[in-house]
Write a structure and sequence with these properties.
alpha/beta, D-Maltodextrin-Binding Protein, domain 2, 10-stranded mixed β-sheet, 14 helices, about 40% helix
């Protein structure tokens, strides 16, 4: 019996030792979001498996992934991407299929396919969080009659000052239409017409000269903190982090929020395919998704994770009211139509770039 125990221990040590030689590269968005992944996924994953995780920051992880696969020189094992990129890359054969049957069930045995929120498993990707683009402002700048609606963001007469916007068509067109009076439920019906696209760009014209463009998620809170803008769109978790962790006097306006998924994908030709899949399965398990919500205000993609969401890691701040999926925050909101952007993203981004370059 002792020999069997010693043999089992030796084999376990060898397995851990073998894993310890392996480092997987996970490309994500950096900043507060990246830190939440390190704390909720990477550290416990390494502790459990012995596989090291090297986090690589990118303004948009989908960009280097596509370049690597097309060049046949893949160094990324796992990437965190937006839904429209996941759908398009799956269609193009740049990422590998992921069978929901391979994902861990909920603690009560519910299969993953039934436990993930609708739409969270598009075929070649596994969603981890729901995030949203909102806008925020410095409360010390607008003490009297502060902004409360998406229309206020576009009203530079009543609320003077520069505006921060992400440099791109997606989300900005949706925000512009809602600010112009289009009901959230009708945004894509309108945006799906040439007249609707013209209407969105016409609304953007009204603030174009006042816009400071940002490209990385860490930039908007810094623009606010430095006083370079009076208001800025941003990922809700970044503004939450600045307000709670950095004690900045920032306020989120949820009206007109645009919600999206972030998902894990594995590129075709990933150098550590097996370990990459182990990471995806671990990171998107019920407990780990709930753990991430202790570090950033993004909603877990699994139903079984939501009851486990409690307080921020400071032990004081309740996370529920700060989630995009809180009913109070969804009264006038829309969700990115990823199929629409997969189909029309290229042409709309080209038009956006032409619009941006025009006087």
């Amino acid at each position: 019996m002792k020999k069997a125990i010693y043999l089992s221990t030796a084999l376990t040590a060898l397995a851990v030792g073998a894993h310890a030689q392996t480092t997987i590269n996970v490309v994500s968005w950096g900043g507060a979001y990246g830190k939440s992944q390190v704390e909720a996924y990477d550290k416990p994953f390494t502790a459990k498996t012995g596989i090291d995780v090297n986090m690589i920051d990118a303004d948009n992880p989908a960009t280097p992934l596509k370049a690597q696969v097309e060049a046949g020189n893949v160094t990324t094992d796992v990437a965190d991407v937006e839904m429209s990129d996941a759908i398009r890359y799956c269609d193009e054969g740049l990422i590998v299929p992921i069978d929901p049957k391979d994902l861990p069930p909920a603690p009560d045995g519910t299969p993953a396919a039934q436990d993930f929120l609708p739409g969270a498993l598009p075929g070649c990707a596994v969603a981890s969080i729901v995030f949203s683009t909102v806008y925020g402002y410095d409360t010390t700048k607008f003490k009297d009659s502060p902004p409360t609606t998406i229309a206020d963001f576009f009203d530079t007469k009543k609320y003077p000052g520069k505006r921060g916007l992400r440099k791109g068509a997606k989300v900005n067109l949706e925000l512009a239409l809602m600010a112009d009076g289009v009901p959230a439920a009708d945004v894509y019906k309108v945006l799906g017409t040439p007249e609707g696209v013209d209407r969105a760009f016409k609304k953007l014209d009204t603030i174009k000269k006042d816009v400071v463009w940002w490209e990385a998620g860490a930039q908007p809170p810094q623009l606010l903190a430095d006083g370079e803008v009076a208001m800025t769109t941003a990922y809700n978790g970044r503004l939450f982090d600045a307000a709670v962790n950095d004690k900045k006097p920032f306020k989120i306006v949820w009206d007109g929020q645009v919600m999206e998924w972030d998902l894990f994908v594995i590129p075709k030709g990933a150098p550590h395919m097996k370990e990459a899949m182990e990471y995806v399965k671990f990171a998107t398990s019920t407990a780990q998704l709930a753990e991430q919500a202790k570090w950033i205000a993004y909603g877990p993609a699994r139903k079984s994770s939501n009851p486990l969401v409690g307080k921020f890691h400071d032990g004081v701040t309740d996370m529920g009211p700060n989630m995009p999926t809180n009913p109070d925050n969804m009264k006038n909101s829309t969700t990115v139509d990823s199929a629409f952007w997969a189909d029309h993203g290229t042409e709309l981004e080209q038009r956006f770039n032409s619009w941006l370059a025009a006087n």
